[in-house]
Write a structure and sequence with these properties.
two-stranded antiparallel sheet; binds magnesium ion; HAD_sf; Pyrimidine_nucleotidase_eu; 16% strand; nucleotide-binding; cytoplasm; 7-stranded mixed β-sheet; EC 3.1.3.5; binds thymidine-5'-phosphate; alpha/beta
């Protein structure tokens, strides 16, 4: 209404313009209290550069467990791909207890803010090796995996399907880079109807014998703190990701930051870190490492908003062409 009074129009407009300039971002999701940024102007500049280049220049590289899946749901921890295998359908009682014990021993080391990635590395190798050896001993059957996933409480973050769908629609490649178990990861996204053709996966894949019994894990082991090696060898080999110099990277661990190291032509990289656990202890290191830090946020609202912003020029182009 005030806009209809001529003498008040100009001052109000000026104030609004100054306010807009001060808050600048066109993304309301980034103003939430759960969103932290070390350098807001860098985030905005990167997003504008990515928007200008459009969807055709973009690729998304994301971690899986506790990044695309929730950390907790209805007050309970959501299982990781490894923990989905910790099911009596697949392994005996003794082994389920052993796997839980290993988790309780090594997960606190994985997220310990007082240890460097180099200090954590040998423990991570130990954890993954022990668990994989145990799974192999249990002679897991390939044809039981889908049922184990259906029985589990695995759940993608709210808005995750929209994220996958938008990427597929815009033909933006999505590389899921996970230290989890690739066969289970694939089954989770298949059962959620988001395993689109633009999805590529680097992970630990099971090797089954001729009757479908687990006998080994394929290739070099990937754990939380050696993703750089995997990125350089396997990531660089993914042809679809060449020619996409802008990277939106999502992770929940400092080890995830090296997932884009295989992108030799990278021009702009925007990193988003989900800080799920040990929030106060890890806040500073996350803020020093990720461009955007999301505190105890179980949704994909922020990545979805960033993605919409980056591809918005393409969307308006499509509408103009119609
Ligand atoms: P990510 O790279 O997709 O996040 O998968 C790795 C996560 O899996 C990491 O946070 C630790 C977790 N993990 C388990 O939950 N149970 C296990 O037995 C192992 C070896 C790893
Ligand atoms: Mg993770």
């Amino acid at each position: 209404m005030v806009f209809h009074i001529p003498w008040i129009y100009t001052p109000v407009r000026t104030i609004l313009a100054i306010w807009h300039q001060l808050t600048k971002t066109e993304i309301p999701e980034l103003t939430r209290v759960s969103v932290m940024m070390r350098e807001r102007s860098r985030v905005e500049d990167t997003m504008y550069a990515m928007q200008k280049a459009g969807a055709g220049s973009l690729q998304v590289i994301s971690d899986f467990d506790m990044t695309l899946t929730k950390f907790a749901h209805k007050g309970k921890r959501v299982p990781t791909t490894h923990n989905i295998l910790n099911n009596r359908l697949l392994i005996d009682d003794d082994s389920t207890v052993k796997m839980k014990k290993l988790f309780n021993t090594y997960y606190p080391i994985e997220i310990d803010a007082s240890l460097s990635p180099e200090e954590k590395l040998p423990y991570m190798v130990e954890w993954w090796t022990k668990v994989h050896d145990l799974l192999i001993q249990q002679r897991i059957r390939k044809d039981e995996l889908a049922r184990a996933v259906r029985d589990s409480n695995a759940v993608l973050r709210e808005g995750c399907s929209a994220f996958f769908d938008c990427l597929a629609e815009q033909r933006v490649p999505l590389l899921i880079f996970s230290a989890g178990v690739g066969d289970i990861l694939e089954e989770v996204i298949r059962q959620n109807h988001v395993f689109h053709p633009n999805v590529h996966i680097i992970s630990n894949y099971m090797d089954f014998d001729h009757i479908g019994v687990l006998q080994a894990f394929k290739g070099q082991l990937i754990h939380s703190y050696n993703k750089r090696a995997g990125a350089l060898s396997q990531g660089a080999a993914l042809r679809e990701l060449h020619g996409q110099p802008n990277v939106l990277l999502l992770g929940d661990s400092l080890g995830d930051l090296s997932m884009a190291d295989g992108v030799s032509t990278a021009q702009n990289i925007l990193t988003v870190g989900f800080l799920n656990d040990q929030v106060e202890e890890r806040k500073e290191s996350f803020l020093n490492s990720f461009d955007i830090v999301l505190l105890r946020d179980e949704t994909m609202d922020v990545p979805n908003a960033i993605l919409r912003f980056i591809v918005s020029s393409e969307i308006s182009k499509v509408h103009r062409e119609k």
